[in-house]
Amino acid sequence: MLERTAGCLETGSLRRLLPGPKHLAKSRRALHSGFWTHGAIELELSPLWQLMLQGPDSIEGSSSRSPNDGTVSENPGLFLDFLYPASTLKFLRQYPGLGVDRQDGKRTRLGLRSPGYRLYTSSAKKPSLALVPVDAETKESIEIKKRPIIHEPPDDAATIATVLGITTSSRYEEVWRKYRRLEFGSWAEERIRIQVLEYMAASNRIVDAERATSLFERSDERREKPEIYEIVIRTYLRLQNFTRANELYHYSLEKFNTTAGGSDIMLHFMTNNLWSQAFTLWTEVQLHENLTGPRYDMFKSLHHIEDLPNKALLLAKYVNKSPRLSSEVETLPSEALTKFATAVITSALLSAKHFSYATFWPLLRHIQGWGTETVPLYTQATNMLLSLGQLKAATVLYRQARESPIKNLLLPRSMLQSILQIFFKNHDLVGVQEVFADIFRFNQTLDRASHRRCMDEFARHGDADTVHALFEQFAEKYMRLESESATSPNPLASADDMAPLLHVHARRGEPKIVLEVFKNIRKKYRLKPTITCCNILISAYAQVGQIDDAFETFESTVNKRKLQPDDYTFGTLMGMCASRGDLENTIELYRVSATYGVEKSAAMVSTLVTAYLAGDRLEEAETICEEAVKLKFSDSRTRMWNSLLVAWAMRYDLVNVNRILQRMSKLDIEHDGDTYAALMQALAMVKQPERAWQILAEVMPEAGIPATSLHYAIVMGGYLATNSYKEVFVIQDRMLEQKRMKTASTKFLELRAAIHAARLTWGDPHGAMEIFEQVVQTMNPRDISDKVRKGIQHEPLDIAFPTTFFGYIIFVLSKNMEITSAKDMHQRFLRLLPADRRDTQPGNVTTALMSLKLQELDYDAVEDLWHQFVSDTRKRAQSLRLSKSLSRTNDSEKAEVVESDVGNVSEEGVLEDTKVDQQESKEPIKAAHRLALTKALHFYMMALARQGKINVMIRTVNEITDMGFQLSNQNWNEYIQHLTKFRHFKLAFKICETVLMDHWKGWAKLRALTSEKNRLPLEIRRKGKLLTSLRPDYRTFLYLTKGFLNIQAMAAESRANRLLLNDLEHDCSRTLNAIKTMVRTGDSLEREILG
Description:
By secondary structure, the chain is an all-alpha fold. Among the domains are: 445-479 and 492-563, Alpha Horseshoe (Serine Threonine Protein Phosphatase 5, Tetratricopeptide repeat); 571-651; 790-881 and 926-967; 974-1090, no CATH class. Helices cover 60% and strands 1% of the residues. The strands form two sheets. The chain has a two-stranded antiparallel sheet. A hairpin with a 6-residue loop joins strand 3 (324-325) and strand 4. Helix 47 runs parallel beside helix 51 (1034-1051). The longest helix has 19 residues, at 744-762. The protein is elongated, with a radius of gyration of 44 Å. The model is unreliable at 1-79, 95-156, 325-330 and 889-921 (pLDDT under 50). Belongs to the CCM1 family. Binds to mitochondrial small subunit 15S rRNA. This is Pentacotripeptide-repeat region of PRORP domain-containing protein. Keywords: Repeat. PPR repeats lie at residues 530-565, 672-707.
């Protein structure tokens, strides 16, 4: 219809006489940019319409144009392609010969396209080189005056900016309109023709692509440049004219001996899955012998493909299905084809914007399968992954490079250093060992900083042998003395360089060796100890419980060596007090640090929070964490919040665990490995190890948190608690597959699982004794070097490992009535202890021995062990005596302390012991130690009950409760049962009523008959697992029922029993009501007790 309308308009010249308003020209552009230069139909407009539609710009200089002027006669604009079907458009564009006659006798292509169709855009290209700035005073906002047609060369260089007055990009219509005003063949037009071509080629519009190709076809020798051919080839491909683009590429290849435009041809082939044509194109370049011109990367344009990795996977599939060449080992594709595919896949692998786990590793496996991986590939891929923050992927790639079967795969030093820094950050000792081995294997060297970091990392994991070997190399290179006899300070090093030697033995619980190394700082290396060295020495004493030595070292550090203590110094001393539950002295040290000018750190506040948590003061601890958010610290606050998470987790309180996690997120407190460990521990406590494993296997890798042996130990403990013993070994195997080392925690959990599994299989633990012997034979202090340990006893570090294992195995053997084996184990344990430790028995070993002696019916030994245990526990529960320099006690209190000290010394120790006993009796037991007697009390009450010493039992319970100790729920129930057995009915009922009945929730069977929910809320059931959750159990009610029946039977004949019955009805109503409403079940336990 448009063609018919246009056909009725007659040609005239009125358009050149009458100027038209500019808004009409604006309407013209709004209709379609190519409608008014439609070359397919040659619209014949009347002169009036031509003048009104073209506007005043066409009047100027129109008389100077000749009929043969290409800028006037040719209509290179876009055809009305939106009027044609898409299939017709595609057909016509494949044949460049189709077109209409033009006035110059040439034929032009039909500029048809489908609505909105776009091919390869150049929107990301840089602006044309022809677009150079003009004078600084020229601005885009200033209207540029019309320039007359230039007939003579100007003084300045001819560019789009100087000739057309346009200095910005993307003004394609304006550039084209002003360019067409130039006289064809003039000096200016010839010199900016190629520049306009470049300018138009940068556009995404098809009309501009048509203009660019028309300029190229009319250009002379000025176009004979490789970069111009590259632009035009890309433009023709955008116009879907592959034939012409291919012709120009081969012409450029032969004329310039370069591959200009080849990357765009390759892009076309890869986009359309034309693998054989792409391989042929690449092969032609490889076989070309005279590529002397500039080399263009054949694959540089592939990044324009949105699904480049998937295209590369399709290419790999094509290669693997191609005709194969037989080899001795297996059949492989042709070498040239795999080389080509490797080049394409490498481009996809190294494209950062296309990175995806789903495609990266399959693509890499294809290259590895063909055996075409190279060092540059691994190096560049590692750098790309590091730039994207994919640290775990970078380490996996490094380990695959190490395992490559290709010989002489020499990884560069830069790559090894980058990977080493990741392992340092994640404290991955196995990774550090791998890089360290590669550095020496490739005859490379470590710089001083990396050498020092290696020593620190091995020291952190307690590997003393490696640290000493590394230090010898370090000292030889950086700490060599000019003369052994010289006395001047060593100018080449600092005492901090010896910190790893001190640190490794402190982590292993070896304070004597730490002291020896500390002395060598001045004696052997002529260095002055720093505060860092002194801090490590204090820490070494603190970890093995040598409190006096730790305080003495602090005194000498401050007074003798005149060193300024720092936050680490006071943090260590505070931690020593907090580990004993000594909240008062922890707070005192925190306050005293200000008098030494120590700036508070997050680590000090974290230790303070730990002390409050040990005292069961969780609300106050959380308040401190909230207040710490407002303070400015240089270190992280995560540790104190992690302590809160663990405290709630150990109380089976998932609600508060979730609340603290949400609070951390709201306050932007970063999550670390210990945060996830706390959450996993909370799930393991409520018997959900599957969810804990899900966090370890899925959530932590996504968050970029490396898993440690502790995380695996938590999951193993969760499965152990649910009696899933096989899963414990499965988790341990997966830990070893991930190259995580066994620790004391994982070994202990493995031993426990093996013993339980052996009992189920053979009925006794003998099947697991092999594991125990293996653990004992390979016992190494480095296994205990982790600061956070699961299942390991809270004993001094130097004896914690043997105490945990031997105490458990002695207990197991005693339960299995293997008395002789248990005694042998105890003797072996004593031989392993240091000489100064054999006088005091560790707590868990004492309880194991009480179980052993109970089985032997040696009740006197049980009683002796009980009294020893109580005495040792009271000593551990005592507050520490701070030194004078660490106490802010006033002068009068100091004088009293001095006088009491003098009095103690004059009495030759007798009064001193009395004073200590009085102090012990007066000082209340701290919250951290109130439940310390529960296990030992269980065995002692059993021994007393077997002897019939019920009065001693009553007196013992009264004494320890008066001291401040607490009984667990199990202790109270067993105590009541013992009382009823020996007919102490009134006391038994009274204790049950006052101590246990407050938290009793009634009979489940009776709740089922009411409208109330039968099962108790999950939170209540979980809190019922706490030692301090006091309530009577079923066995206790059965014994009380038996006692009540006896009282009723005797009440008919005894007035005392009648009075007792009345007292129970009045004082113990809840207990009696529970007894009376108890539903008889007739189970074996009921028949055993009630008969």
